[in-house]
Design goal:
Blueprint (H helix, E strand, L loop, with lengths): L7 E7 L3 E8 L8 E2 L3 E6 L3 E7 L2 E7 L5 E3 L4 E6 L5 E8 L6
Length: 100
């Protein structure tokens, strides 16, 4: 399999409670395989399709700019931009804080 280009991530906020990262994907770029350590919200800034390679197979997600979604910690996947245009989203991670 050919190597994909890497999506670019820019951490905007990283403190004891929250990490906010902007992700920018040119067509064909990917995050690389990863496991989410924290619960998180994704806020798409673009509208389009992302391919999710997961342990359960390949899935496609249709995202709409401004329509956020939440996921629990533990998600494992590689996210690939299958659009013919740049795709951008902001990821907000909720770090564990204090005793719960």
């Amino acid at each position: 399999m050919a190597s994909r280009g890497a999506a670019r991530s820019t951490v905007q906020i990283d403190n004891e409670r929250t990490r906010v990262t902007e992700w920018r994907f040119a067509p064909g770029e990917a995050t690389g395989w990863h496991r989410h350590q924290y619960d998180y919200v994704v806020v798409p800034m673009s509208t389009g399709t992302l391919r999710l390679d997961t342990v359960d197979g390949i899935h496609e997600a249709e995202l709409v700019g401004g329509q956020s979604y939440f996921r629990n910690a533990g998600v494992e996947h590689d996210v690939i931009n299958v659009n013919d245009h740049e795709f951008v989203f902001v990821e907000i991670e909720f770090k564990r804080h204090g005793s719960t």
